[in-house]
Design goal:
heterodimer, A: 242 residues, mainly alpha, 80% helix, B: 395 residues, alpha/beta, Rossmann fold, CBS-domain, 2 domains, 32% helix, globular
Chain lengths: 242, 395
């Protein structure tokens, strides 16, 4: 245990770097997936290309992608940009479908009502569809966050420092405590991401709580809120680390 | 004014099938400041017709004019911001508070937030929603309250034209009637040009200044005032659709002339058995409250205690003495005594009248009201006092 105390500074530094490598691509990937998902719904003909194509990206093995990056980007092998770009690709791969599902969860009647009030397409997407899509979107984002945290640890194989380093280093030195620190660190980090996203969802959806607590149990809005909650439970149960 | 000129909407059929016609060569005018109701069975194209006005649906041919401007030439979003739109289930935004839902169109028009919200608060007051509801979300409201918010939202930017698509059909009958009455009250105040869609002929007749009956396939069957529609359906389809008791319902549009009333003996609530028996030799005796408003009938012979509210027979309706034939006749037919209770504008008893006497007055050939209703008047529609029947039940 003294090893942990002696290396607390390093562990903290690695954890921060791990969080950045997983978190920044999560935000950039979300920013890219939103317009892509919206386009897929707006133009049903290209939807299979956008959704299928982005989904296919997730099948590229992470180590291969990390190694491929310098060739594609012209960067050096140890540049952090390799990891950031690769992680962004994975995030987009996971989130495009989530965005499509999330926008699809907005009741058709509500979207039509927005148009007939005088919203134009983009205004409607930002002011009506996006806020209503938050619950489904947040559950997709939580899956992507956990996936990112676990994929980033693979980057230690190409020598980029983060919590995954303790897994490879501990394995090479047959030092179980160090491996344990790596595992616990990753799990805690994933938990922090999950809580942060839940918190953001909570802050963004006061209306869904109102629907849930409203006594009008038969109202269609609370039915929608119930469906959303169910979806998010299902999705978080299906978290698969790579 | 909304004007349809030879408007047709055709949908391409499935491969191998003929295209289907939703609206067929519709020419129609919805006059400024009046309620025009589109009514018909499902598949008659009434909702399609409505949605072509704000270009949610594009006509296949023909044109739609709004106050002299061809809507096809206007920017879609700007056109829609200038038209109030109310739909079934209200279509409120679940993620916005009631106040912000109502402020939607003013915000789209570029008003600043404070001004839009102040306006929204006014609108909520106008539709009779307590200010306490402003901070709630739509899911926390009943269906009837949501519908009020829907109407408030449509009115917020004060558009001259309103489109209403079955706005009251998703609420229960009692609330529906309340909403209809308040809607008519609002319309008297605001005088909007309204196109109103319903499948309910009773609603059409109650609300419409003019009613357009559409048949399946989107053809206009008849466009007339409600009283004309009841009195003179153009064909079997309209006659069937208007319904069997149209003769009786048409009486709702005929103002009763001053009738010879009978003075009715009354006792106040709380009167003793003796007082009740002394008041009349008739089987039934009318009871009034301290203000002179009729509250119900009692049978003095069967009384064993001073008259309380629990002894009252409440079957009879009351009618305004200057109300419609329908209301007056209904009061007479529903009274256990056979004597219909008539009141003045303040609800105070003025006398009673029997069904025979009402029917006799109706049958008099020279009765002015009869001639006016049967010949249909002009575009002005029905005199306000004759609209609907304001019979309430004696309680």
């Amino acid at each position: 245990m003294t090893w942990v105390w002696e290396h607390l500074g390093d562990i903290g530094g690695y954890a921060v770097s791990h969080a950045l490598l997983a978190g920044i691509p999560l935000l950039v990937g979300l920013a890219l997936a939103l317009p892509l998902g919206w386009l897929a719904r707006r133009f049903p003909r290209v939807a299979p290309v956008i959704v299928g194509g982005s989904g296919l990206l997730y099948t590229i093995p992470s180590l291969a992608l990390f190694i491929l990056m310098p060739l594609l980007l012209g960067s050096r092998i140890l540049d952090s940009i390799n990891v950031y770009v690769a992680m962004t690709i994975y995030t987009v791969a996971l989130l495009v479908r989530s965005v499509v599902d999330a926008l699809g969860s907005v009741p058709e009647a509500t979207a039509l009502a927005a148009t007939s009030m005088g919203y134009r397409r983009v205004g409607r997407a930002l002011a009506v569809e996006l806020p209503l899509a938050v619950p489904v979107l947040a559950s997709g984002l939580r899956v992507a966050a956990v996936s990112n945290v676990s994929i980033v640890s693979v980057a230690s194989l190409i020598g980029y420092p983060q919590l995954g380093y303790y897994l490879t280093d501990g394995y090479q030195r047959s030092f179980p405590l160090e491996i344990g620190v790596g595992i616990v660190g990753c799990v805690l980090l994933a938990l922090v991401f999950d809580l942060a996203i839940r918190g953001a969802e909570w802050a963004l959806t006061p209306w869904a709580r109102a629907a849930a607590s409203s006594s009008a149990a038969g109202s269609r809005y609370s039915a929608i809120a119930r469906r959303w909650r169910n979806t998010s439970t299902r999705q978080s149960e299906g978290v698969g680390a790579r | 004014m909304i004007r349809f000129e030879g408007v047709t909407k055709r949908y391409a059929g499935a491969p191998g099938h003929a295209p289907s016609v939703a609206v067929d060569d519709l020419t129609l005018e919805a006059p400024t400041g009046q309620i025009t109701v589109l009514v018909g069975p499902s598949g008659c194209g009434k909702t399609t017709t409505l949605r072509m006005v704000n270009r949610m649906i594009t006509p296949t041919s023909g044109s739609i004019w709004l106050d002299g401007r061809d809507t096809a030439g206007l920017d879609e979003a700007e056109l829609r911001r200038g038209i109030g739109y109310v739909i079934q289930h209200a279509g409120l935004f679940p993620h916005r508070t009631v106040l912000d839902n109502v402020a939607t169109v003013p915000r789209l028009l570029g008003w600043d937030k404070a001004k839009a919200r102040a306006r929204a608060a006014e609108m909520l007051d106008l539709v009779g929603l307590d200010a306490a509801y402003a901070r709630r979300y739509p899911s926390q409201l009943s269906g009837g309250q949501q519908q009020r918010v829907g109407v408030a939202r449509a009115l917020a930017a004060d558009p001259p034209v309103m489109l209403m698509d079955e706005p009251f059909s998703a609420v229960d009958p009692v609330v529906r009637e309340q909403l209809q009455d308040e809607f008519l009250r609002l319309q008297r105040e605001l005088g909007k040009t309204i196109l109103f869609v319903t499948h309910d002929i009773d609603e059409a007749i109650k609300l419409g200044d003019q009613v357009a009956v559409l048949r399946v396939g989107g053809r206009l069957a008849q466009l007339d005032t409600p009283s004309r529609l009841l009195a003179d359906p153009v064909d079997d389809f309209v006659a069937d659709f208007v319904g069997r008791d149209r003769g009786y319902r048409a009486l709702g549009f005929r103002e009763a002339p001053p009738l010879a009333l009978t003075d009715e003996p009354t006792v106040p609530l709380g009167a003793s058995v003796g007082a009740a028996r002394a008041a009349t030799t008739n089987r039934w005796l009318l009871v009034v409250d301290e203000g002179g408003a009729p509250v119900g009938w009692v049978e003095p012979e069967r009384l064993v205690a001073p008259i309380g509210r629990e002894h009252l027979h409440r079957g009879g309706t009351v009618a305004r003495a200057d109300g419609s034939y329908r209301a007056v006749l209904d009061a007479a037919l529903s009274a256990p005594s056979g004597r219909g209770v008539l009141v003045d504008g303040a609800g105070v008893l003025v006398g009673t009248v029997t069904a025979n006497r009402v029917v006799a007055a109706m049958s008099r050939p020279a009765a002015a009201a009869v001639g006016e209703a049967a010949s249909g008047g002009g575009a002005g529609g029905i005199p306000e006092t004759a609209r609907g029947d304001h019979a309430g039940s004696v309680t």
